[in-house]
Specification:
The chain has 287 residues and is α/β, with parallel strands linked by helices. It has helices at residues 47-52, 79-92, 105-116, 132-141, 143-148, 150-154, 160-179, 188-198, 203-216, 244-249, 268-271, 273-285; strands at residues 6-12, 15-22, 29-33, 56-60, 98-103, 121-127, 230-235, 256-261. The chain is globular and about 50 Å long.
Length: 287
């Protein structure tokens, strides 16, 4: 782990959540949420920059990942539980309001946290995942998006996805990262970090259970409109998600803006670390 980072443990009921932290404890809180198949390391290029800009930065391994607990059964990965983990972290840090950013599945949790707890989220930053209502509509009506999301259906199978993921030193997962990103985005050192996280006992099932829970335990929101100031960052060369969904997501927000990156992929914060950090810092610092 990077020498300037602290390692913390949080509790949500019986679930223990590992996180890395940087910045002064009394500075405004920023929580960064990773996606699949990453862990806290997803944000490693942003943490120090945000801390240096005057934020207390907390980056959890979400449940099922790396050093956090991996409860058995897909029901434990329903969105309400994933959101409750975020709120539990903020509660333990006595943060009535906090800034929230998420990428991929972490963005889905971030959207949902802002929808369920708008009074807690000061500002919302989203990287390459649409608003939940947009995602559901495209999966139901857009064949191009359905074709890109084939792996979500593969992950519904028992046992087999884990076996495929584990085979040949996680070759499938490594290839999916390397082939869907700009050349050189993920170094051999990066991939060694991911392999170590994927090798934690129970983590492959925990990670894939997010997809199983999404299919079986659909979240419900009292209001699908996001009332929290929102900034969406989107790499337009995303191999998994159509860029049109980013534009459609703006309609579900009272106050949102979209920053697109024409030459970036789904792995935007890895490919454009400086620009992503600047856009987060300026957004969170603005009155």
């Amino acid at each position: 782990m990077h020498s300037s980072l602290e390692s913390l443990m949080f509790q949500n009921g019986p679930i223990k959540l590992h996180a890395v932290a940087a910045g002064r404890p009394n500075d405004p809180l920023v929580i960064l949420l990773h996606g699949f198949p990453e862990f806290w390391y997803s944000w490693h290029k942003q943490i120090a920059l945000l801390a240096d800009a005057g934020f207390r930065v907390i980056v959890p391994d979400q449940r099922g990942y790396n050093l956090s607990d991996k409860p058995r059964g897909a029901a434990n990965y329903a969105m309400a539980h994933l959101v409750s983990d975020v709120i539990a972290i903020a509660d333990q840090l006595h943060a009535e309001k906090f800034f929230l950013a998420g990428h991929d599945w972490g963005a889905a949790v971030a959207w949902s946290t802002a929808l369920l707890y708008p009074q807690r989220v000061a500002k919302l930053a989203i990287v390459n995942v649409p608003h939940p209502s947009v995602m559901i509509r495209y999966l139901k009506t857009n064949f191009r998006q359905l074709r890109r999301s084939w792996y979500m259906f593969f992950f519904q199978l028992p046992f087999f996805p884990e076996a495929a993921f584990r085979a040949f030193e996680h070759r499938l997962a490594v290839r999916s990262l390397v082939h869907s990103s700009r050349p050189g985005t993920f170094t051999n050192d990066d991939l060694a970090q991911y392999r170590a996280a994927w090798s934690q006992p129970g983590s492959l099932t925990g990670m894939i259970n997010w997809y199983r829970a999404a299919a079986r335990h659909r979240g419900r929101f009292p209001d699908s409109q996001v009332h929290v100031p929102t900034r969406i960052l989107w790499g337009e060369q995303d191999a998994f998600l159509l860029s049109a969904m980013a534009h459609d997501s703006l309609r579900y927000c009272d106050n949102a803006e979209l920053h697109t990156f024409a030459n970036s992929t789904h792995w935007l914060q890895h490919e454009e670390p400086q620009r992503v950090s600047e856009l987060l810092i300026h957004f969170f610092q603005a009155p």
